[in-house]
Each structure stands twice: as structure tokens, then as C-alpha cells.
Amino acid sequence: MILRNTLLYLSRQTQLRGWMETSPLAGRFTKRFVAGQTLEQGIAVCRKLNAGCILTTIDHLGENVTSAAEAEASRDAYLEALERVAAENLPSTVSIKPTQFGMDLSEEFCQANLEPLVAAAARIGSCVEIDMEASGYLDRTLRLVRAMHSRHPSVRAVIQAYLRRGEADVEALCGDRIPVRLCKGAYNEPATLAFPSKRDVDRNYLRLARVLLRKGVYPAFATHDPNMVNPTLDAALELGVQAGQFEFQMLYGIRRDVQNMLTSGGYRLRLYVPYGVAWYPYFMRRLAERPANLLFLARNLFRH
Ligand SMILES: Cc1cc2nc3c(=O)[nH]c(=O)nc-3n(C[C@H](O)[C@H](O)[C@H](O)COP(=O)(O)OP(=O)(O)OC[C@H]3O[C@@H](n4cnc5c(N)ncnc54)[C@H](O)[C@@H]3O)c2cc1C
To answer: What is 35-278's CATH number, 3.30.70.1290, 3.30.365.10, 3.20.20.220, 1.10.645.10?
Structure first.
């Protein structure tokens, strides 16, 4: 727990971030979890995964931008990514973070900045998946999702099962026919808002998965945990939900054994494929989720 919290603390240190992201060793740190620094590398990974019948969602790395120009540059990077998705006919969505689109500047700016991307996704039959960040952004993010969904149906919300209010939010989104990605949650939250014990988070995840299977619109179950995957498959069978009516989502480079188990069983799997130079906070959250990854990092650093 101490190591996890330290890694999450370090993930927010901007000076360290600047130093790490410009390090010539960056590629060696990140290659297991990040497709590369350029769109070309991101698309190449999507193409390869798609050849193995795996769907993708592209993440142009970046968050907490501090100027309108940066937020607009993020939007343009995503518009370019969607153009490539359309040109290559890839079964890919895009995943964005509200703070990357200017949520820290203002809600109105963020909505206006995101709208052209959601419209572009609708035009090509893709979807914008709106990641959920720390709880301070939750209400604003749900308002953003609803505002986008009222104009184009091509958006997906994310709900974090570690939050106590998760069930109410899932019910409300299902009521509004908004698709949901369910994950456990990756940020450091106080016990007043989030279940502190893994057991309670897991229990809530499975409870919400059942709600989504019963009432959701093509739900996505984002987890690498076989103790979430298997009961969700059992629940789908019990509730008569067919394999094509939901999908699992996992992060690029994590638990390939569970990925193979799903694809060989004929289930839909979408991998979250991050690319870009701003890899540090994403990468540090992956380390915090599993500090044993530090060993992997050390091995790659000293391997020539
Ligand atoms: C597609 C996708 C989208 C996501 N979007 C969001 C989001 O919008 N907001 C948000 O807060 N969180 C998001 N997350 C992160 C999520 O909330 C969890 O922090 C993360 O997925 C770990 O939880 P788990 O369900 O895999 O279960 P865990 O119990 O944490 O892990 C289960 C097993 O998976 C493996 N594993 C998990 N993480 C790692 C890792 N980093 N490295 C190596 N092995 C690992 C381990 O073998 C572990 O035992 C997303 C996750 C995925 C897969």
C-alpha cells in the first residue's frame, strides 16, 4: 500500500515527469505498456491486434493540459487518429480524458472542444470513450458525457466500481441508454467516497456488471482480473446475454493469458492502445496497480 501510494504521488510530480518523458531511455521504460511515441506506431499496433481478431481503443497520451492551445492540439491529434482509423477501416474507438480536452480550463470549453471529435466518430461509425479521472471530475465528466450523447450517440461513459455511488450512476446511465465501460478505478480516493478494501471493490464490480448485463447498452467490462471475468461470463450465460452483446476491455501489454482465453472462447476483446510522448502519468498508474512491474522495468533498463 505504501509503495502504491508513493507511485501514485510520483505520478503527479511534474518536474520528474518532464525529466522522464524526455529521457533517451523512455522507449525502454515504456515498451510493454505503450505502443510508441507516434500515431504511426499506435496504428501499427492496432493493425496487428486486429489481425488477431482483437478490437482496439486508441489513447493519445496526455492529461491535465493547462492552455486552450494544448487542449486543441489534443483534439487535433485525435481527429487525425480517427482519420487513420477510417482510412484503414480499423475496428477502433478512441479513449479521451476530459482534462486533456480542457476540463481544467472550463466545462464549456471542454464540451466545445470535444464536440467535433464525437461528431467525427459518429460519421465513421466509431465511438469516443470518455475515461473517468479522479473523483473531483466525476460530476463534470458525466455532464460532458450527457451533453455529447444528446447530440451524437457515439460516446461511452466510464464508471469506477471502487466508488460508493457507482451503482446509482450506472442505473442513471442505463436509464438514459448511454453505453458504459465498467472498471475498478485507478486513482487514490478517500474512504468516504471509495471502498478501501479490494474485497468490497470486487464485490461491487460484480454487482454492477450484473446491472449492466441486464439493463445496459452494449456494456464493456474493463478488467484483467479472472475473478471478475469468469463470474461476468457466468452471469451473461445465466441472463441469456449473447457473446456479441458485450465486450471485455484490457490494457495493451497486460495479462495476455486472460486475453487469449477470451479470444479463443469467441468473446469480444478490445485493447486500450496508448501512444504519445506524454506517457509518464499513465505509466506510473500501471506501476502503482502492480508494483511488481518495477522488476520488469529494472530488467529492461539494464538489458542491452
Ligand atoms: C480498458 C481499460 C480502461 C480503463 N479506464 C479507466 C478509467 O477510465 N478510469 C480509471 O480510473 N481506471 C481505468 N482503468 C483502470 C482500472 O480502473 C484498474 O485500475 C485496472 O484495470 C486494474 O484493475 P483490474 O480490474 O485489472 O484488477 P486487479 O485486481 O487490479 O488486477 C487483476 C490482475 O490483473 C493483472 N494486472 C492488473 N493491473 C496490472 C498492471 N498494471 N500490470 C500488470 N498486471 C496487472 C494482475 O495479474 C492482477 O492480479 C481502465 C482499465 C482498462 C483495462
So the answer is: 3.20.20.220
